[in-house]
Amino acid sequence: MSKSDKAAEKQKSDRKKPEGLQRIAAMGDLHVKEHGSESYKDLFAEISQEADILVLTGDLTDLGKVKEAELLAADLRSCSIPMVAVLGNHDYECGCVEEVTHILKDAGVHLLEGQAVEINGVGFAGAKGFAGGFGRHMLGSFGEPAIKAMVAESVEETMRLENALRQVRSERAMVVLHYAPIRETVEGEPEEIFPFLGSSRLAETIDRFPVKAVVHGHAHRGRYEGRTPGGAPVYNVASHIEKPTGRPYALLDL
């Protein structure tokens, strides 16, 4: 066993779940490919031992192909705990999003697109989110129709998130996104692409509700942790991000 594997095993043995809480494993950006992709079967089996609920934050497939979704669904059979997910931008690439959605739902995934689901007392509000930028650099609806269409899409995704949050009845609420709601967790990426990594509109909506935690992916070179202006903890759980677990997934207790 390598040093990194030993360290991960020690971290696993040190993690004790507080009584009365649910342990959530959160991970994004699996990018399952049709050819040459690693299998996630063993990882999903491991997560089933470590956590009570699995949350996936989009870019589940690499190109949004039906075959990629089928491969992921096959791997998900090794996951024995409830599964919640949102789609990411890559999952839309091939224009097969309806088929991809159907396959994942058939595999038992609670796929959220502006909806909420409550599992074991935790309310999950999910939407993909969209681009638009952060703070005073957020893109405004002005100029060419293409710019206005982009802003309109950002606003529409924010409304989907708000609709999902209004459905949550639990005092323990987690927001599941693909795009980032804050700048902090995308820092490490080139600043030139920040406007395409998320939008402050998402954070503005989150801060109107009593949210315990927010998870997202998308920014592979971002940072693990930040907070919305209102203080809600935000975690970038893209599989590429270094996490306290030493594993591709984060563990959060709610």
CATH architecture: 4-Layer Sandwich
Q: Quick one: how many beta strands?
A: 11
CATH class: Alpha Beta
Mean pLDDT comes to 94
**What percent of residues are in strands?**
15-25%
Lateral arrangement of strands in the main beta sheet: 5-6-7-8-10-9
Q: Determine the number of helices (DSSP H or I, runs of at least 4 residues).
A: 6
CATH H-level homologous superfamily name = Metallo-dependent phosphatases
Low-confidence stretches: none
Indicate how many domains the architecture comprises. Answer: 1
Helix amount: 25-40%
Which term fits the overall shape?
globular
Domain Calcineurin-like phosphoesterase: 23-221
Organism: Rhizobium soli
Region (Disordered): 1-20
Protein name: Calcineurin-like phosphoesterase domain-containing protein
Layout of strands and helices, then pairs:
Blueprint lengths: L2 H12 L8 E5 L13 H10 L2 E5 L8 H10 L7 E4 L10 H10 L2 E3 L3 E5 L2 E5 L18 H23 L4 E5 L23 H7 L6 E4 L8 E3 L5 E4 L13 E4 L1
Parallel strand pairs: 1-2, 2-3, 3-4, 6-7, 7-8, 8-10
Antiparallel strand pairs: 1-11, 5-6, 9-10
Organism: Rhizobium soli
GO molecular function: metal ion binding; UDP-2,3-diacylglucosamine hydrolase activity
InterPro entries: Calcineurin-like_PHP, Metallo-depent_PP-like, Metallophosphoesterase_sf, UCP008292
Q: Could you provide a short overview of the structure?
A:
By secondary structure, the protein is an alpha/beta fold.
